[in-house]
Amino acid sequence: MRWLVTGASGMLGRDLQAALAGQDVTALGRADLDVTDAAAVRAAVAGHDVVVNCAAYTKVDDAETHEADAYAVNATGTGLLAEAAAESRAKFVTVSTDYVFDGHATEPYAEDRPRDPINAYGRTKAAGEELALAAHPDGAYVVRTAWLYGQHGPNFAATMLKLAATKDTWSVVDDQIGQPTWTADLAAQIIALVDAGAPTGIYHGTSAGQTSWYGFARAVLEAAGLDPDRITPTDSAAFVRPAPRPAYSVLGHDAWRRAGLEPIRDWHSALDAAVAAGALTVD
C-alpha cells in the first residue's frame, strides 16, 4: 500500500513514519502541503491507498481568538483531505481529540456520545470529524486521542523532566483526569486499524487507565528515577487560561473490541516502555 501522512513533521507524524519504515510512504509537513488548498490536496492524495491526517491547528488558547484560522486547518482541511481520499478510493484516517466533549462526564466517553465541545479548538475538531465522515462515509476513520507525549516535539512529560532539571519543587493540577498516550503506541494502533480492514467510523486512540496531570507528572519522575515528591498538587484555578479545559477526558475503547482489535495498553506500561526506549529526553 502507498501511504500519505500529512502533518508529518509533528510528534505523531514522525512516529508514524518510523512505524511505517520499509513501506511506501509520502510524508508531507506543513511546509510541503497546505491542507486548505483544495487543488494541492487533491494532487497530494492522488495515487495513495491510505491517507493519515496528522495536520492540525493545536494552539488551544490562541484558537479562542483565532477560531477561523483553526477552523481552516482542523475542519476545512480535514474535509478536503477526506473528499480527495474518497475520489481516489483511499482509506482516510484523521486524528481528533477528547476536546470534542465537554469534560463533565463521570465515566468514559463512548465513541457514539454526542459531541459537545467547550472551547474553540474543540469546536473546530468536532467540525472536522463531521466533514470527514460525511465526505467519505465508507472509508473514513476518526481516531480521537489525548494527552500525547513522545520523542519528537514539546509535550507535558518532557516539560516535567525539564522542570526537574531546573526547579526543586513545582505544582501540577490534580483536578483534570485523562489518559496519557505515547505517540509510538498511537502510530502502531492506527496502522493496525488500517491493516485489519476494520469497520469505518470513530475509534478512541488513548491508552487504557486514567490519571490526573499530577499523577502523570509523578509517574514521569518515578520512571526517570527522580523523586516524585518534588511535585505538589494544585487545582485548575491556579492556572487560568483563555480556553477552558475539560475536567474529565477519559475515552472508552469499545469500538476496538467490536472490530476484533485490542485497545492501546495501559498508560503506566507505555510510559515505562517510552522511558526505556529513550523517547523522553530533554533538549
From TrEMBL:
An annotated GO cellular component: cytosol
Alphabetized GO MF terms: dTDP-4-dehydrorhamnose reductase activity
CDD domains named among the record's database cross-references: dTDP_HR_like_SDR_e
Entry keyword annotation includes Zinc: no
Listed EC numbers: 1.1.1.133
Keyword Oxidoreductase carried by entry: yes
Keywords: NADP, Oxidoreductase
Chain ranges of the RmlD-like substrate binding domain: 1-276
Gene Ontology terms: biological process: dTDP-rhamnose biosynthetic process
Pathway(s) this gene product operates in, as recorded in its UniProt entry: Carbohydrate biosynthesis; dTDP-L-rhamnose biosynthesis
EC supergroup of this enzyme: oxidoreductase
Function of the protein: Catalyzes the reduction of dTDP-6-deoxy-L-lyxo-4-hexulose to yield dTDP-L-rhamnose.
Family stated for the protein in its record: Belongs to the dTDP-4-dehydrorhamnose reductase family.
Protein name in the entry: dTDP-4-dehydrorhamnose reductase
Annotated source species: Agromyces intestinalis
Name of the gene: rfbD
